[in-house]
Design a protein that fits this description.
With about 475 residues, the chain is α+β, with helices and mostly antiparallel strands. It has three domains: about 180 residues, no CATH class; about 90 residues, Beta Barrel (Lipocalin), CATH 2.40.128.120; about 160 residues, 3-Layer(aba) Sandwich (Glutaredoxin), CATH 3.40.30.10. It has seven helices and 23 strands. The protein has an eight-stranded antiparallel barrel. It has an eight-stranded antiparallel beta barrel with strand order 9-10-11-12-13-14-15-16. The protein has a five-stranded mixed sheet with strand order 20-19-18-22-23. Strand 9 and strand 10 form a beta hairpin.
Length: about 475
């Protein structure tokens, strides 16, 4: 297992320069606040995690007075750069300047997908702490009104890292403003690439990646040259992307507050085949070559699997787990560093509120890999507070090297890059179903599919015979 795969979903802290500068004489244009009640295309399912989409219930800011709308963010085109120059572009929404220490809300925007977090901005210094990920963002405004700072990580298991960040003000986060594909060389095709007719603007690509194996890339074209994408990996990881295309070049980028991502494709003349590269992780050092083939939609097989149907699952040897009440149980394998876990959190909170009165139990196993029990316990409390969790959250001690030994027994081929992994256990602790990863609510079709799957699994659990499980022992 490569640590760079795990770095895809690790923490970040953005510790920038602290030089004092004058605030911009003319601040960047501010977008009008979005009012979903007056949006005919608004889907109520998008609201499910809105308040916690940044990974913390406390991260969402609210207006101080009822009926008073908070001002919308000022938008920047932001980029983080690896040491060798690889760039990841995304939109950064900065809250309106307020008094020092006054909380607003920052936005990391990739296509229609937004990750929101509490932030402070006094006109000079921007700070975006993401406490649940043990990370923060900090930058300063220069005389040219641009932001300069760093994207750094302090995740203990993989060490600290730092990438420079720069952001320039824009009027609005439009697809053309992202400009992930630079100007075409003289004499080259400078036309925006059209993936539409004779093919559909929605296309599915089967990727063969050098290390990750088969993956699925779904691309939607909003206009010629303007694309959004979802990359599904066999680990269960779902990566949100957006970018541009010109000539035969496609560049899609993503940033979720914990890692950056970049997919480069060079299309063949038939526009149905491509070669390319993938970059990811908190250092952008997870790198793979790939080939892509356009075709019909397909179901991507998840890599994690059980040893046999009905496998008895033994939970790790922790007192809190041994004390769990008998009955149907949903077990979430998660980590505070896991950016995808914040997608699942608000939905699991809703499910627990709905099904706990009918006898459903739930527990989250938190894998921090710090080898520091005090730190793990503190992160478990932060996880509960940030996501509004009311069921037990149990930190599992151990390092990444111990992962195979501290997993629930009965599982195989588990990769933390696929967290959250959800196990649905009957009262006798036999595995009824499992799910890898979780989509954000704004991936509407996929979210609805997974939500329906979870509800069906829970109904199956509640209909199971109430056979008590024996003491929490690892099956051998």
């Amino acid at each position: 297992m490569r640590s760079t795969h795990l770095g895809v979903v690790i923490a970040l802290s953005w510790l920038g320069c602290k030089r004092e500068v004058e605030p911009p004489a003319q601040p960047p244009a501010t977008a009008a606040p979005h009012d979903p009640a007056h949006d005919p295309a608004h889907d109520p399912s998008h609201d499910l995690g809105a308040a916690r989409d940044a990974g913390a219930a406390g991260d969402a800011s609210t207006a101080g007075d009822v009926g008073v709308a908070a001002p919308g963010p000022s938008w920047y085109r932001a980029v983080v750069r690896a040491a060798d120059g690889v760039e990841v572009w995304f939109f950064l929404g900065v809250p309106a300047p307020g008094a020092a220490g006054a909380a607003g809300q920052a936005v990391f925007k990739v296509g229609d997908h937004e990750v929101r977090s509490a932030a402070t901005f006094d006109g000079k210094t921007l700070r975006i702490p993401l406490a649940v990920h043990q990370t923060a963002v900090e930058g300063t405004v220069g005389p040219d009104h641009s932001l300069r700072g760093t994207f750094t990580t302090s995740w203990r298991a993989w060490g600290a890292s730092s990438l420079p960040l720069a952001a320039t003000p824009i009027a609005a986060p439009t697809p053309s403003a992202l400009a992930t594909v630079g100007p075409a060389p003289v004499g080259a095709d400078a036309a925006a690439l059209d993936l539409g007719p004779p093919g559909p603007p929605h296309s599915v690509w089967r990727l063969a990646m050098t290390d990750s194996g088969v993956a699925k890339l779904v691309i939607d074209q909003t206009a010629p040259g303007a694309l959004t994408g979802l990359l599904f990996l066999g680990t269960g990881n779902i990566i949100y992307l957006a970018g541009n295309a010109r000539g035969d070049a496609v560049v899609l980028c993503g940033f979720d507050g914990t890692s950056g991502y970049r997919v480069e494709l060079t299309l063949g003349a038939d526009r149905a085949r491509a070669r390319g590269k993938f970059f990811g992780g908190h250092r952008l050092d997870w790198r793979e070559s790939l080939t892509a083939t356009r075709g019909a939609d397909f179901a991507l097989a998840a890599q994690p699997k059980v040893t046999r149907p009905g496998t008895q699952i033994g939970l790790p040897d922790q007192p809190e787990l041994a004390a769990l009440a008998p009955g149907p149980l949903v077990v979430e394998l998660a980590g505070s560093w896991c950016s995808t876990c914040r997608n699942a959190a608000p939905f699991l909170v809703e499910l627990y509120r709905e099904y706990q009165p009918r006898g459903l139990h739930m527990v989250s196993l938190l894998y921090e890999f710090s080898d520091d029990r005090a730190l793990d316990a503190a992160q478990a409390e932060t996880f509960k507070t940030s996501y509004g969790v009311t069921w037990p959250v149990v930190p599992i001690p151990g390092s990444i090297d111990d992962f195979a030994e501290i997993l629930p027994r009965g599982l195989a081929d588990i990769n933390p890059a696929g967290f959250p992994i959800t196990l649905f256990l009957a009262p006798d602790r036999s595995l009824v179903a499992f799910h890898v990863g979780f989509p954000a609510a704004d991936a509407t079709a996929e979210f609805r599919r997974v939500a329906a799957e979870f509800r069906a699994n829970i109904e199956t659990l509640l209909a199971s015979p109430r056979t008590p499980h024996r003491a929490n022992r690892h099956p051998r």
